[in-house]
């Protein structure tokens, strides 16, 4: 299911990237390119609406995750723990704000959607910023661990630490791309809000989506390797 959601996100931003580039660069006389670009932008908008509707069902899973994480008693570092708790709070509040905004646009409730879209964007940006801070903190801790293992043995442990470092760096890159878009969708006058062309929004979103696919594929491969290793160990024991 998660892979399907990331694929939809990738196609959404990819369509916006290509559609925005075509509509901006195509000459006025090039009617076919202009038409294709507009069609891709409309397709991207529909996929974005689809993603909003799909998120209507994410509250309970997010609540279950927040409950299982709690105050992060399993975390070794207090900084990572409290940043993660604040991130969970921002994520949990994001969903109802977006749901209210969506319901207002669909005329299911009689409220103005503008402020609720703003609340959801602020919470999304806050979550992304906290995620970046968390990744930087984790990188600092990983660097200390790498220095410790370089003085001793443990080649496989160093390899694991290097993989974790690469994963955190990808997370930072992904979150920074999304945070750039979050600022773009803020009210005019705030930093670079409203200044990005459609193709740039699509490029940033596509970048973060492709990183998400890479991370999902990596985690799936590691899970498969772990499962195979456990099976082999069980077979040896039997």
From TrEMBL:
<keyword id="KW-0576">Peroxisome</keyword>
<keyword id="KW-0472">Membrane</keyword>
<feature type="transmembrane region" description="Helical">
    <location>
        <begin position="116"/>
        <end position="142"/>
    </location>
</feature>
<dbReference type="InterPro" id="IPR026510">
    <property type="entry name" value="PEX11C_met"/>
</dbReference>
<keyword id="KW-0812">Transmembrane</keyword>
<dbReference type="InterPro" id="IPR008733">
    <property type="entry name" value="PEX11"/>
</dbReference>
<keyword id="KW-1133">Transmembrane helix</keyword>
<dbReference type="GO" id="GO:0016559">
    <property type="term" value="P:peroxisome fission"/>
</dbReference>
<dbReference type="GO" id="GO:0005778">
    <property type="term" value="C:peroxisomal membrane"/>
</dbReference>
<dbReference type="Pfam" id="PF05648">
    <property type="entry name" value="PEX11"/>
</dbReference>
<protein>
    <submittedName>
        <fullName>Peroxisomal biogenesis factor 11 gamma</fullName>
    </submittedName>
</protein>
């Amino acid at each position: 299911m998660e892979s399907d959601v990331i694929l939809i996100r990738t196609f959404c931003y990819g369509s916006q990237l290509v559609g925005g580039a075509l509509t901006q660069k195509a000459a006025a006389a090039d009617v076919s390119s202009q038409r294709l670009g507009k069609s891709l932008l409309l397709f991207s908008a529909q996929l974005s609406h689809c993603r909003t509707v799909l998120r209507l069902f994410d509250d309970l899973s997010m609540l279950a995750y927040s409950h299982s994480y709690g105050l992060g008693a399993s975390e070794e570092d207090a900084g990572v723990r409290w940043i993660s708790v604040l991130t969970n709070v921002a994520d949990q509040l994001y969903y109802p704000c977006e749901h209210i905004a969506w319901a207002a646009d669909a005329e299911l409730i009689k409220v103005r959607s503008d402020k609720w879209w703003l609340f959801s964007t602020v919470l999304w940006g806050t979550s992304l910023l906290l995620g970046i801070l968390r990744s930087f903190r984790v990188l600092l801790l990983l660097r200390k661990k790498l220095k410790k293992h370089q003085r001793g043995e443990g080649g496989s442990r160093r390899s694991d630490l290097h993989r974790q470092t690469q994963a955190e760096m990808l997370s930072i890159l992904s979150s920074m791309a999304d945070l750039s878009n979050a600022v773009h969708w803020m009210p005019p006058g705030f930093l670079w809000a409203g200044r990005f062309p459609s193709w740039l929004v699509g490029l940033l979103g596509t970048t973060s989506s492709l990183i998400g696919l890479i991370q999902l594929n990596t985690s799936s491969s590691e899970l498969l390797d772990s499962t195979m290793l456990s099976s082999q160990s069980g077979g040896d024991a039997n």
